[in-house]
Amino acid sequence: MLSMRDLRVRPAAEADLAALVRLRDDAARRLLARGVTGQWRPGELDEDHFRRVMAHGEVWLAEADGLLAGAWELWWEDEDAWGPQPPVAGYVHRLMVDRATTAPGTGRLLLDAAERRVAEAGRTRVRLDCLAGNTQLNAYYADAGYRVVGHKAGKPQPGGTPKSFTLMEKQLG
Question: What does pTM read for this prediction?
Answer without folding.
Answer: 0.90
